[in-house]
Amino acid sequence: MSLIIGLETSCDETSAAVVADGRTVLSNIISSQVDLHQRYGGVVPEIASRKHIENVMPVVHEALAAAGADLADVDAIGVTYGPGLVGALLVGVATAKALAFAAGKRLIGVNHLEGHVFANFLAAAELAPPLVALVVSGGHTSLVALADCNSFRLLGQTRDDAAGEAFDKVARVLRLPYPGGPQIERLAAQGDPAAIAFPRALSGTGCEFSFSGLKSAVLNYLNAARQKGEPVNEADVAASFQAAVVDVLVAKTMQAAKMAGIGRVVLAGGVAANSRLRSDMAAACAAAGMTLHYPPPVYCTDNAAMIACRAYYQHLAGDWAGLNLNAVPALRLGEKKY
């Protein structure tokens, strides 16, 4: 049995996990900062970094204890080194390097976005490439094809705002608390998704996304109504906005899978927890004769189990980092910088 301990500190979750043979989660400890950042309406990078420093070693100790393991028992240490907030990333990278040096263990630098894709492997034992992944979160919206566990081909990505970023910004103007995505989804459940005809940008062929125009359309709709003193049905706004985002995500994913000639689709990232996206994507995949996988919500948001899972496959391939590993905040999906 091969044990990997993973560390994740790319944004506002401090997490450590122990995973056996890349698929069996023995522990997955997450210390969330949501309540701390909620008062500011979003993540404050400096505060996030300081909380990571406080939390990272207690989380590591708890993950090992919950797994019934010691650092001497693990085969390698995987850590997110990008993309993310540079100060937050540095806490995880420095901790992983110190542990690897002290225990004489292999160090593995993990791309956070690749980790999100591999979260699906934790939920489906039979899942294997080739597959097409929609990675959709607050900072990223990308389509990628995996020929094998260590081969990523970017098919398309957003030209401006990520889908999750648009959710958060629309939630803010609707005066909903942070994080905005779940709040929009809850409000949308009470509204009519066909009430307002918000635009679907880049709706033709291709795998590129754009959500800035949709965000502006929502803002313009709300501002116009407020200036005229007209009532606004916020549930209809949320439902119509969510429908516009999901329609584009589903259509582009179907186009990407057909272009790549791959009949297996996976969802990854925080927005992958959205129930409207899951149900609409499932219907589209069923109609196209494709299979769909998505992880449970705990593996959609940032967590170390997905990092340990990805690190396991890098470990099998001998893809190890040196102790000069550094944080790369703008690391791209499929890119390696160490």
List the helices and strands and how they pair.
Blueprint: E1 3-8, E2 13-20, E3 24-32, H1 34-38, H2 45-67, E4 76-82, H3 86-103, E5 106-111, H4 112-123, E6 131-136, E7 141-148, E8 151-157, H5 163-173, H6 180-188, H7 212-228, H8 234-260, E9 264-268, H9 275-288, E10 291-293, H10 297-300, H11 304-316
Parallel strand pairs: 1-4, 4-5, 6-9, 9-10
Antiparallel strand pairs: 1-2, 2-3, 6-7, 7-8
* Arrangement of strands in the largest sheet: 3-2-1-4-5
Mean of residue pLDDT values: 95
Roughly what percent helix? 40-55%
* Quaternary structure: single chain
Task: Let me know the number of strands.
Answer: 10
Distance between the termini: 27 Å
Q: Provide the low-confidence segments as ranges.
A: none
| CATH superfamily grouping of the largest domain | ATPase, nucleotide binding domain
Rg, rounded, reads 20 Å
**Can you summarize the main beta sheet?**
5 strands, mixed
Written overview of the protein:
The chain contains 11 helices and 10 strands. It has 338 residues and is α/β, with parallel strands linked by helices. The chain folds into 2 domains: 3-118 and 299-316, ATPase, nucleotide binding domain (Nucleotidyltransferase, domain 5), CATH 3.30.420; 128-295, 2-Layer Sandwich (Nucleotidyltransferase, domain 5). It has a 5-stranded mixed beta sheet, sandwiched between helices. β9 (264-268), α9 (275-288) and β10 form a beta-alpha-beta unit. α2 (45-67) runs parallel beside α3 (86-103) and α6 crosses α8. It is globular and about 65 Å long. The model has no long low-confidence stretch (mean pLDDT 95).
